Amino acid sequence: MPMSQPLSQVQGSAVTGPARAQATRARALPIDRVLLRAFLRFAGRPPVRCVLPNGDAVYEGSGEPVGSMRFRDRATLYHFLRAPEIGFGEGYTDGRIEIDGDLVEIVAAAYQPVAPLVEKLFFTARRARQNSLVGSRHNIHRHYDLGNHFYRLWLDERMLYTCAYFPTPEASLEDAQVAKMHHVCRKVGLQPGERVVEAGCGWGALAMHMAQHYGAHVRAFNISHEQISWARERAARAGLGERIEFIEDDYRNVSGTYDCFISVGMLEHVGADHYRDFGAVIDRCLPAHGRGLIHSIGRNRPARLNAWIEKHIFPGAYPPTLGEMMPIFEPFGLSVLDVENLRPHYERTAADWLARFERQVDQVRDMFDERFVRAWRLYLAGTSVAFRIGLLQLFQVVFARDRFNGMPWTRAHVYA
Amino acid sequence: MPMSQPLSQVQGSAVTGPARAQATRARALPIDRVLLRAFLRFAGRPPVRCVLPNGDAVYEGSGEPVGSMRFRDRATLYHFLRAPEIGFGEGYTDGRIEIDGDLVEIVAAAYQPVAPLVEKLFFTARRARQNSLVGSRHNIHRHYDLGNHFYRLWLDERMLYTCAYFPTPEASLEDAQVAKMHHVCRKVGLQPGERVVEAGCGWGALAMHMAQHYGAHVRAFNISHEQISWARERAARAGLGERIEFIEDDYRNVSGTYDCFISVGMLEHVGADHYRDFGAVIDRCLPAHGRGLIHSIGRNRPARLNAWIEKHIFPGAYPPTLGEMMPIFEPFGLSVLDVENLRPHYERTAADWLARFERQVDQVRDMFDERFVRAWRLYLAGTSVAFRIGLLQLFQVVFARDRFNGMPWTRAHVYA
C-alpha cells in the first residue's frame, strides 16, 4: 500500500523518544483487531481502512475505502479507541498515525457516519473553561500570537482569519474576504461618519475596510499583542491612523457609545457563561439607533468543541447554538433582525487555507517543526470537514435596538 | 373638544344595560384625578390627554397631546387603572372609553414610553394556556371561523391573513401578499414536483401559489372548518385539485415525508410548551434533503401576549422569542439557515388591514355589532402599533437537515 505521506517525512522531529520506543516494541495482538472492529462498527462503519502496527488491515465499511489510517504502535491504537478525537489528533500530530489518501476526505469519511453520535455524546454541553480576563489573555496569546509571519504565509493578503463570503463558488479567497467585509458593512447599513466599536479585530482588516470604504470612525479592541501591533502599523501606513484607534484591551473594557457594534470571530472565545456580560457591553455601547453584527462559529445542538482542537489548538473556545447566543440579546431587548448561516462558506474558506498552507509547508516546518505542521494540517482539514458535514455552523447575526426603525426596508440592498 | 368618533355612534348596541347605568351615576371624585395622574407618571407621561367622566382633563405629557381618551364612568377608569391592557380594550370595545384623534397614533403614543415597562412586567413568561388537540380546535374556531365573508371584506383578494412582504414601501397589499409567497418559496428553493406539507394553511392561498407557480404537490393542514372548505372549493375551481390536498386536521397528525415543511402564521397558536413536539413532527416529515420555513409573530424578550388580545381576540396565542423557538430545531439537529425579521412589514400590513376594514365598517357592523367593530378596530390598530414600536417581531426562519448541502450558495437568488 503506497503511503502518500510516508513516515520518513516525520522522523526528524516526531517519532522520537517514547514514541519510537513504543513503535519498536509494538506488535498487534488478536484482541486489537477485535476491539478495533467493534469500534468501527460502533462508529457507523466508516469507509476508511485501518492498519494495525503489524500491517494487518481492518475494514468494516462497504464499497471502496476512501483511504487508510495506520497505527504505528499499540499505545496509539488504544489511546485512539479510548478517546478518539484526542487520540487521533495527538497520534496524527506525533506521526504515530499515518494516513494514506486525502486527509480532508478521510476525516470526512470517518466523521460523517459518527457525527450524530458525537453530537449526542456531547449534547449535555460541558461548557468550555472559564474565560476570565487573565485566562482569555493566555488562551488568545497561545493561538493568535504564533507570529504574524506564520499567518501571512497562508491567509489572504489582508490577513482575515475568519470565514470568507464567496459571492460565487468560483471567487478567490482574496475576493471572498473583501466580499465578506462588504457583506458585514451592508448588513448593518454602515454610513459615513458613523462610530463603530469592533470587539476582537484580528489584524485590523475589517476596521481598515470600514474606515476606508464606508468612512467610519472605528475603535477596535483585541487582546492579542502581535495582532494589534501589526494592525496599528498597517493602518498608519495606509494613512488611516486618524480614523481608527486600535486598543489592546479586553472587550469587557469597551467604553463610550457607538452607532455600530461589530464582532467578527470573537464570540467563539467568549464562552457561553459570559454571553450575558457580552450583551451588557453591547447594551451600554448602543444608543437608540444603534445596531450591530456578531459573526461566530456555532452549532446546531449544544456540544463542546472537538476535544483535540480545544486542547491543542483553541483553548477556551466554545461554539454556541443560536439558542445559546440569545442571552446576548434577549435580556436587553435587542432585536434580532437577520441571521445568516454561512456554513458552506467556511468549508470552502478552510479548504483554501489548507491548500495555501500546504504550498508553504516547508517554511512552516522551518519556523516550527513537523509536529506543528501535522497538527495544523489536521486542524485546517478537520475544520473544513466539520463545516461540510454540519457539525459546525457559521452564524452572522444582525441586531438593533428594539425601537430602531431606520434599517433598510428589505435585505435587497445587500445583494444590489 | 370635537370627538372624531362620537358616542352617538355606538349607542345602538354598546352602551346598554349595566354600562349605561354606570355611565349615568358616574361622577369624578378628587381621588380619581390623583390616581390617574400617578398612573400617567408611572406610565412614562404619554402625550395623551385623559378626560374624566365629569369632563376634567388630566395631562402629564410634554408638548402637544397626540389625542385624548375619555372615560365615561368611574368603573371604567378603575378597571383601566387596575389592568390597563384589558381595561382599555374592554372599555374601548364597550364604548365606555372614547378616543379623540387617530386611534393608531394614540395607542402608539400611549404605549411607546411604557413599552419597556410592559416587557419587564411580563418578562417571566407566563405562558399561554395549554393548547391540547381539543383546546386548539376551540381557540382556532373562535377566531378563524368568524365567517369567510367577514375576512373577505378587508383582507387582500387571495385572503392571506399573515404579514405581507413589501418589496418597496409603495407596494400595494395585494402585491405584497404575492411577494410574500414568492419570498417564502424562493427562500426554501422550492423545485417543480417537490412535495410540501403546510401546517396551518389559512384559506389556502400559499398552497395554491406553490402548486401553481412552483409545480409543488402540497398537503395542507388546518383545523378551521370554514377556512378549509373555502380553500378546497377555490383550489378545485382553479383546477389545482390534483396537486393540493387540504386536510382538516391538527398539525400533530401530519404523516408522510416531504421535501419541504412550511408553516406561515401558525406557530403563534402552538404554544411554547409544544415546540418540541412541533419539532418532532418536522423531524419525522423531513428526509435528508428536507428543509422548511416557519413564519411567526415573535418577541425580543419572553412575554405573554397583550392581555386583552389574548382574552378577546386570540385565545391561546403566544408569540415566542427566537430563543424560545429553538426547541423546535436544536433537539433534532435541524440547522437554522436564515432568520429574517419583517417587523416593519407587519406594521404596514396591519395598517393596510385597518384602512380596508374602515372602508367596509358599515358592512361589518351589519354582520356583527358596534362592539365587534370597535374590538377589531382596536385589535388591528394595536397590532400595527406593536410592530411599529418593537413590542412584536415577525420572524421567518429557514431551516434544513443538518447535513443537507443543496441550498443555494448565497441568498442573492431571493432578490434576483
Characteristics of this structure?
homodimer; four-stranded mixed beta sheet; 11 strands; alpha/beta; seven-stranded mixed beta sheet; Rossmann fold; 416 residues; 2 domains; elongated; Nonspecific Lipid-transfer Protein, Chain A
What secondary-structure arrangement, pairings included, does this model have?
Two copies of one chain form a homodimer.
Chain A: H1 17-25, H2 30-42, E1 48-51, E2 57-58, E3 67-71, H3 74-82, H4 84-93, E4 97-100, H5 103-111, H6 115-121, H7 133-144, H8 148-154, H9 173-187, E5 195-199, H10 205-214, E6 217-222, H11 225-237, E7 244-248, E8 260-264, H12 275-285, E9 291-298, H13 307-313, H14 322-325, E10 335-341, H15 343-359, H16 361-367, H17 370-388, E11 393-400
Parallel strand pairs in A: 1-3, 5-6, 5-8, 6-7, 8-9
Antiparallel strand pairs in A: 1-2, 3-4, 9-11, 10-11
Helix pairs in contact in A: 2-3, 3-4, 4-13, 4-17, 5-17, 9-10, 15-17
